[in-house]
Write a structure and sequence with these properties.
mainly alpha; Tetracycline Repressor, domain 2; elongated
């Protein structure tokens, strides 16, 4: 996700009706910037996941993406801002995958939960480069990046909480506050997938998905029942 104001406005001119910016190779300046950004992000995904954030200089990213260094700096003040754009782009892809999965028709709440969790896990683990960047390389870059990374985890927790609140309104779940349980579950999911990235013999993705589904059932569905019994 690109911050507001990072991109210049090269839309259509109200006066002329023609695209703003000089046309080169059939592309406007805005389209050329978008193409450079796309190539940079793909190069960053490959290099950060294989060589690591700290061992990947900007010049190496530019060389890999065939983007001039001066054009890199037209888009980003530095490597950390570039990494943040990559991280946010990957997270947004995951968020869209989960929301799309939850639009289906489901026979019961557990099936719906499984669909959302499966989409989330696969959005990370189907391409191990994405998992490596999000779960490993994002850690320890700077205090600012650590705060942003925590915000992203809380964002995932809010998706869980919103789904729990929706189930509460429908009568599927009892009346209680699900915010802390949602955050605990988000942290557990994060740790499970980090372990998958580091493992020399990672378990099948389906096993990871079912383990998370069981955690969800325990933390979100089962807590009130357990409290009534204890």
């Amino acid at each position: 996700m690109v911050a507001d104001g990072k991109w210049e406005n090269h839309g259509r001119s109200a006066e002329s009706g023609r695209p703003k910016g000089r046309i080169y190779g059939g592309l406007t300046q805005e389209k050329r910037r978008e193409a450079r950004r796309s190539r940079l992000l793909e190069a960053g995904l490959e290099l950060f996941s294989s060589e690591g954030y700290h061992r990947t200089p900007i010049e190496r990213i530019c060389e890999r993406s065939h983007v001039a260094t001066r054009h890199f700096y037209e888009l980003y003040p530095g490597k950390e801002e570039f990494f943040r754009d990559l991280l946010d782009t990957l997270i947004e892809d995951s968020r869209r995958a989960v929301l799309e999965a939850l639009r289906g028709e489901f026979k019961d709440p557990v099936e719906e939960v499984r669909a959302g969790i499966s989409a989330f896990v696969r959005s990370y683990l189907d391409d191990p480069r994405r998992a490596r960047v999000i779960l490993v390389e994002a850690v320890g870059i700077s205090p600012e990046m650590e705060r942003h990374r925590r915000e992203l985890i809380h964002g995932f927790a809010r998706i869980i909480e919103e789904k729990a609140e929706e189930m509460k309104r429908s009568g599927t779940l009892p009346e209680r506050d699900y915010s802390m349980g949602s955050l605990a579950l988000a942290g557990a999911v994060n740790e499970l997938m980090i372990d998958w990235v580091y493992s020399k013999s990672p378990p099948p993705k389906e096993r990871v998905i079912e383990e998370i589904v069981d955690l969800f059932r325990l933390v979100i569905f089962g807590l009130s029942t357990l409290r009534d019994r204890l």
